[in-house]
């Protein structure tokens, strides 16, 4: 199938924009690769330190077996990461069987946005991505690894690991998923109880019971938020083994896929004949494929922040216009909560990523001629794994959807576009995700109510202050102000107001969760209010127009730009729960339009 004109045009534009940075990047990783196996440059004393605790240290010192570094985000507070507890033992066993060795190079932090939602700790969440990249850099700095296995799933962890994998682009990289938990209480029922609690119709006991029935086992949360969007991306970008993203934890197939990932990592080092450095996988085509996956599945808006930061680590420069243009040409082929009633287990059973990649390739909407960890192109990812005599075999995946309420082909999608719009106007640049927003709510024009954080919005809601159409403006929520926490706890409140018949919208320099849904929300507005952005000039009563049809975000009140801007009070976010430690991050972070990054 001929490549779609928009995919071709956007890829060329990214390639041209990135030419200088990408050329320098490839030269850098080529120089590093030319030095040969890294352990060869260590002194005997250096090597003895590295191998002292290994049972097979004599083999390490005297052979050219590949040594695989494990970078793990294991902790047993995150349900998605708890399965990683026993992966190192499995990986070491699989490495030995493949004629290699493996060591845990280091651990990286992994915080749970589900725990910190609405809490001060959430103000560290986005910056944890940069900490993860830095911690991975420390882990790999020992210079003893021929390939790396990256064990991570959730919101900031995979992007942070990708930034590190790009930085160490001469080292082959294989990402190893852990899979989603089995289905529990349906997400729409959980959401209903949340709204009932916001209205005072049920108490905390009922709310807790619903939450515990939804989040109930090891594995990723089953809604299609940032964590599961990450897993989709790794498959679309060729960094997972095909079909491995949504296999449940603690199953024989899950274990066999992990073993297969280790075998593949051992095969693609510079010591063999199939060397595949991570930097060559992470090219502009891979990132375009990732964005196409984001649009076609209705994935998390958080990836609009993460993908530019991930790409810059590999010398690829993305812009909001790339997301917008690709969204306009890529159909929405999946309905997974919050864009539908199904969860990721239902999505996987209906045909999953293999079905989607196959149909997108047929429509010319993906680059097939990319490098992937399989050694082949993206056509390898239309297969699905099956367990045969304890080993994984890949067979042809579903060519037809097994549930057209969840998955549809590109020729008969749920919507003709991916539902992401770039917004621009006199309030700055931002984005809106409209795939779950009713068409009659794509344009909202109403008076502003201005708040400095989501707690003020909650207080106003409890006081009955919202009685007319309103654009809720929550400012000083950008990366430079307070680390750009998710404003997820506003979702039930705004949904209640909308269900009451009000026309409401959110405008913010902050971000919403990957679980944001039916209420129109202009997010990531840049420049942020704390950095001289126009949101600092908005006052209560100003008329705001959010137009997702024309892609504009404007204040219609004449002369608002000439006002003295409101000033952010840094004491609101400077202390407590470790926020003191991140002052340097807040001072040096890039704008949201460039990924809100510190280390790239």
List keywords for this structure.
alpha/beta, Glucose Oxidase, domain 1, eight-stranded mixed sheet, four-stranded parallel sheet, 36% helix
Task: Characterise the protein shown here.
There is one protein chain. The mean pLDDT is about 95. The strands form three sheets. This protein has an eight-stranded mixed β-sheet. It has about 600 residues and is α/β, with parallel strands linked by helices. Helix 8 (about 185-200) runs antiparallel to helix 9. The longest helix has 30 residues, at about 5-35. The protein has helices at about 5-35, 45-50, 55-60, 85-95, 115, 125-140, 155-165, 185-200, 205-215, 225-235, 250-265, 280, 285-295, 305-310, 320-330, 345-350, 350-360, 455-460, 480, 490-500, 585-590, and strands spanning about 65-70, 100-105, 145-150, 175, 385-390, 390-395, 420-425, 430-435, 445-450, 470-475, 505-510, 520-525, 545, 550-555. It contains 21 helices and 14 strands. It has two domains: about 5-180 and about 215-395, no CATH class; about 420-595, IlvD/EDD C-terminal domain-like (Glucose Oxidase, domain 1). Pfam families: ILV_EDD_C (PF24877), ILVD_EDD_N (PF00920). Belongs to the IlvD/Edd family. Catalyzes the dehydration of 6-phospho-D-gluconate to 2-dehydro-3-deoxy-6-phospho-D-gluconate.
């Amino acid at each position: 199938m001929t490549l779609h004109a928009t995919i071709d045009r956007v890829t060329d534009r990214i390639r041209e924009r990135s030419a200088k940075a990408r050329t320098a990047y490839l030269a850098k990783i080529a120089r590093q690769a030319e030095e040969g196996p890294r352990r060869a440059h260590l002194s005997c004393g250096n090597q003895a330190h590295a191998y002292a605790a290994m049972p097979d240290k004599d083999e390490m010192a005297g052979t050219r077996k590949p040594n695989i570094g494990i970078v793990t985000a294991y902790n047993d507070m995150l349900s998605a990461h708890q399965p990683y507890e026993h992966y190192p033992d499995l990986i070491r066993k699989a490495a030995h069987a493949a004629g290699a060795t493996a060591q845990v190079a280091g651990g990286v932090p992994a915080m749970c946005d589900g725990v910190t939602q609405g809490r001060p700790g959430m103000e560290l969440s986005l910056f944890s991505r940069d900490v993860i990249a830095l911690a991975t850099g420390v882990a790999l700095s020992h210079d003893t690894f021929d390939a790396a296995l990256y064990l991570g799933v959730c919101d900031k962890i995979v992007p942070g690991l990708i930034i590190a994998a790009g930085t160490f682009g001469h080292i082959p990289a294989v990402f190893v998923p852990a899979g989603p938990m089995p289905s529990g209480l349906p997400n729409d029922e959980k959401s209903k109880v949340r709204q009932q609690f916001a209205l005072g119709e049920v108490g905390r006991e009922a709310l807790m019971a619903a939450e515990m029935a939804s989040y109930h086992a090891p594995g990723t949360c089953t809604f299609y938020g940032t964590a599961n969007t990450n897993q989709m991306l790794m498959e679309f970008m060729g960094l997972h083994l095909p079909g491995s993203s949504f296999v449940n934890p603690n199953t024989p197939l899950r274990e066999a896929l992990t073993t297969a990932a280790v075998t593949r990592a051992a095969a693609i080092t510079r010591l063999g004949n199939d060397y595949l450095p991570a930097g060559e996988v992470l090219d502009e085509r891979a990132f375009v494929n990732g964005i196409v996956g984001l649009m076609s599945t209705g994935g998390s808006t958080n990836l609009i922040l993460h993908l530019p930061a991930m790409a810059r680590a590999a010398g690829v420069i993305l812009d909001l216009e790339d997301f917008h243009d690709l969204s306009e040409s890529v159909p929405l082929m999946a309905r997974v909560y919050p864009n539908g009633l199904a969860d990721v287990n239902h999505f996987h059973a209906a045909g999953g990523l293999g079905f989607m990649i196959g149909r997108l390739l047929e429509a010319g909407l993906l680059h097939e001629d990319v490098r992937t960890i399989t050694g082949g192109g993206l056509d390898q990812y239309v297969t699905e794994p099956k367990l045969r005599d304890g080993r994984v075999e890949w067979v042809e995946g579903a060519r037809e959807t097994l549930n057209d309420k969840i998955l549809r082909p590109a020729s008969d999608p749920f919507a003709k576009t991916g539902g992401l719009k770039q917004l621009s106007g006199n309030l700055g640049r931002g984005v809106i995700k409209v795939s779950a927003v009713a068409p009659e709510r794509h344009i909202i024009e109403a008076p502003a109510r201005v708040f400095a954080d989501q707690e003020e919005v909650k207080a106003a809601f409890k006081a009955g202050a919202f009685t007319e159409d309103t654009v809720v403006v929550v400012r000083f929520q950008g990366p430079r102000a307070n680390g750009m926490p998710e404003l997820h706890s506003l979702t039930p409140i705004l949904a209640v107001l909308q269900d009451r018949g009000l026309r409401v919208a959110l405008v913010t320099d902050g971000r919403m969760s990957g679980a944001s849904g039916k209420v129109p929300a202009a997010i990531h507005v840049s420049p942020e209010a704390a950095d001289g952005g126009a949101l600092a000039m908005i006052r209560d009563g100003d008329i705001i127009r959010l137009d997702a049809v024309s892609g504009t975000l404007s204040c219609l009140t004449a002369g608002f730009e000439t006002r003295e801007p409101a000033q952010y009070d840094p004491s609101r976010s400077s202390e407590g729960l470790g926020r003191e430690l991140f002052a340097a991050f807040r001072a040096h972070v890039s704008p949201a339009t460039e990924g809100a990054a510190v280390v790239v």
